[in-house]
Amino acid sequence: MGQSRIVRRGLYPLLIATQAVPIIAIAAALVIWLGFGLTPKVVIVALIVFFPVVVNVLDGLSNVDRDAISLARAMGAGRARILLHISMPATLTPLFSALKLAATFSVTGAVLGEWTASTTGGLGVYLLEQNSRLNTAGVFAAILLLSAIGIVGFLVIAGIEQLATPWRTRSTPRRLPFRRRREAARGAVAPSIKGESS
Fold this sequence. Notes:
Elements: H1 5-20, H2 23-34, H3 38-62, H4 66-74, H5 79-90, H6 92-117, H7 123-132, H8 136-164, H9 178-197
Helix pairs in contact: 2-3, 2-6, 3-6, 4-5, 6-7, 6-8, 7-8
């Protein structure tokens, strides 16, 4: 989609349509088509997280530095090399931003999938059961555990982002506290004064 406008014009409206339809309605249809079990749950999660990832990556591909692409073409690089060495690294930042969102949205998708397509117990089913029993402690325990899963997923993606994009980390030395900076400045000034007096 990032390389072909025709493909983008054909597929992008379909992606928007998948997000315009309520997920609960799609979940009921998926249970009819795919049956109960893991498959409809995975499809529901994929439908929830796929759209923000695609939109962010497409925006990243459309905002790649045109001067860098022109320079690569002038040096004889083909479309595959430009995509691999210029476009893809430039889209890592929006990709990981979308993946961090997807890590939290996926928990919601998993809960919705369990509500509609689960035959075995899970946190979503447990949440419904405790809610029907008016068990406040059980409901809040499930909510806290789901929140923890989302936070851990977010932190895992953030850690992978640090490894995959080392150029985004701090390249300048950390600033010293005020007292140490003042002492370092005095130490740097004192030798120059001694040199001038000699």
